[in-house]
Design brief:
By secondary structure, this protein is α+β, with helices and mostly antiparallel strands. It folds into 2 domains: 4-193 and 362-460, Aminopeptidase; 194-247 and 293-359, Alpha-Beta Plaits. Helix content is 32%, strand content 21%. Strand 4 (103-105) and strand 5 (108-110) form a beta hairpin. Helix 1 (4-12) runs antiparallel to helix 13 (432-451), helix 2 runs antiparallel to helix 4 and helix 11 crosses helix 13. The protein starts with a helix and ends in a 14-residue tail after the last strand.
């Protein structure tokens, strides 16, 4: 089957598709602050209906709505995940253009959410439209689930999945995380690291004091820093008691997969403006650590006075937010347990640990139907063989969607970003040509799914998220 007509349709409607994405990106939808969420939810549902989907909205308690839309035919069903919320914009002074202006400069669309993940959602809906207009009904049933709480831990999505597992039953799942690397090779992932997101708190006096009291009043900022210093070594190795002994060895199959993956070390250093990698790693060791290495990242620290102007104070409290990216066999619950015990034995029983959100890892086989369709379509569109990651270094609510059925649903993930997209950071952007190319890619994936007979290979490890704000008892 030739895709000439399909590609021509995309090319003829390129401006229209791009303008739809711009309109979507001009609408703020910051779930963490509730900004613009109602208007965005309504727009997303209309976009789904525009390509012929009958939609249903599900609201779990006070959460933002989840939209379900179905299209296509055939005995095989595939879930397509997306989200319409975006990350907070951060400091406006760090943006070259307005974060919701959706300005195109030199072929790049700058906007919060362009890369993560409104561009992916718009491309997938455009591909459904183009396929129907050129070939007719889709050869498989696509079940779109689009949520609004990705940045909040996807609490509603997990609750929905627990109550409606039959709606998520499918032969495979298409996720929205992926990019082109610095050598323009598409990166496809067959799973995700888990995550445990925590907040550590140290307490001092009832209120900030004049710093003259620093000689005799305990300083919670120093207390927190001292506790943090026990969690990793100066070289960045996680030193929590019992942590490394609970990490599973990398399997032979995954060792083989790693051999085909190459990081453009020089290009990434230029892109990130860094001089080198942690522990001076390079080559195969760097690739292995990137994909199968656990992490502990200080995402932010807040204490005392950090605003303009001098103010000599002794802080009353100090807080740090950490995220741990998890690999087999680490679980969110185990990490919290180990951290609590580690701090206690070192005399830091006074440090509170607050759980903000978690998700277990998901990992599926390259022999699944969805993986074969995605990998097999990439070279045809991009002209180069894709890099296939056994597990993406990022995390997401994969357990909600893929863990709802038994056996778990296999997943394949790809996206429209490139190495310079900077999702979550200032000047988030995508290249418009990548957006249009992704539409053509998705069209071919849909067709290959219709041709591929389903295998039973599924996710080998997956479980759900537990979102909480709970203080872990001291001692």
């Amino acid at each position: 089957m030739t895709f000439t007509r399909f590609d021509r349709y995309v090319d003829r409607h390129a401006r229209n598709f791009s303008e739809r994405l711009q309109a979507l990106c001009r609408m703020p939808s910051v779930a963490a602050r509730g900004t613009g969420m109602a208007a965005m939810a309504e727009t997303v549902e209309q976009m789904m209906q525009r390509v012929g989907m009958g939609t249903r909205a599900f609201r779990m308690g006070n959460g933002y709505p989840i939209f379900y839309g179905e299209c296509g035919a055939g005995s095989q069903s595939y879930v397509v995940y997306g989200h319409y919320d975006v990350q907070p914009v951060g400091h406006l002074s760090e943006w070259s253009v307005g974060p919701f202006a959706a300005t195109i400069v030199d072929g790049k669309l700058y906007a919060r959410g362009a890369a993560n993940s409104k561009g992916d959602l718009a491309a997938r809906l455009a591909a459904v439209e183009a396929y129907q207009k050129t070939f007719g009904k889709l050869p498989v049933t696509l079940r779109f689930f689009v949520e609004g709480e990705d940045g909040l831990g996807s609490t509603s999505l997990y609750r929905f999945a627990a109550e409606n597992p039959e709606m998520l039953t499918a032969q495979g799942c298409i996720w929205d995380e992926g990019y082109k690397d610095t050598k323009e090779r598409p990166v496809i992932s067959l799973g995700f690291k888990g995550i445990q997101f925590l907040e550590l708190r140290a307490h001092g006096a009832r209120a900030d004091l004049h710093s003259k009291w620093g000689a005799i009043v305990p300083n919670p900022a120093w207390r927190l820093v001292q506790a943090l210093a026990t969690i990793t070594s100066p070289k960045g190795v996680i030193t929590i008691d019992g942590f490394s002994s609970n990490i599973a060895p990398v399997s032979d199959e995954d060792q083989e997969a790693l051999k085909a993956i190459e990081l453009d070390e020089a290009g990434l250093k230029r892109e990130f403006h860094i001089g080198g990698w942690v522990r001076s790693m390079k080559g195969a060791a760097l690739v292995k650590e990137h994909i199968f290495g656990p992490t502990c990242t200080i995402c932010g620290i807040r204490t005392g006075h950090t605003e303009a102007g001098a103010k000599t104070v002794l802080p009353s409290a100090a807080m740090a937010r950490l995220d741990f990216r998890l690999v087999p066999d680490l679980t969110p619950e185990l990490v919290t347990k180990l951290l609590r015990a580690h701090l206690d034995v070192r005399g830091f029983k006074d440090i509170d640990i607050i759980e903000l959100g978690s998700a277990s890892l998901a990992k599926s086989s390259p022999s699944s139907a969805v993986a074969r369709a995605v990998i097999g379509s990439a070279a045809e569109v991009y002209g180069v063989a894709p890099l296939v990651y056994p597990m993406d270094p990022s995390s997401g609510p994969v357990g909600a969607v893929c863990g709802a059925s038994s056996p778990p649903t296999p997943v394949a993930s790809f996206g429209i970003s490139y190495a310079g997209s900077n999702p979550h950071g200032p000047d988030e952007n995508i290249r418009v040509d990548d957006f249009l190319q992704s539409i053509k890619f998705i069209g071919r994936v849909i067709h290959k799914l219709g041709e591929t007979k389903t295998k039973t290979s599924g996710i080998t490890k997956v479980s759900g998220i537990r979102e909480a704000r709970t203080t872990i008892s001291r001692g």
